[in-house]
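pasting for ref
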Amino acid sequence: MRTEEAKVTLGVEEVKLIDKKLRTKIIKIEKPLIILEEKTIFSTGHKVKVVDADDFEKLGKIIKDFRQDKKTLIQQLTIMEDILEDKKNYIHQLEIEKERLKETTSGGRLGRIKNIL
């Protein structure tokens, strides 16, 4: 996002109205103008949106909070992945132990003797 700082000034636009009887009426309309410096980052044809400085600061704070929340969520996700990996390893060890117990009980005395030796 490209930004440029400028101040708002009031400009006066004069509209000259002439009716059928050739009477002249001048209407002065005050309009807020945003005057940019000569070396501006914008040129003719650019579409520009104007945001109040306070709103711009609020947007900046929201973006900063969003980035912080993103970092926190990534850290929490990393911790949860580590916990999940530990649980998978624990389950794998239990399955190995279960298979080992099945082998020793299915062999009867022969299985027990083999385990002792």
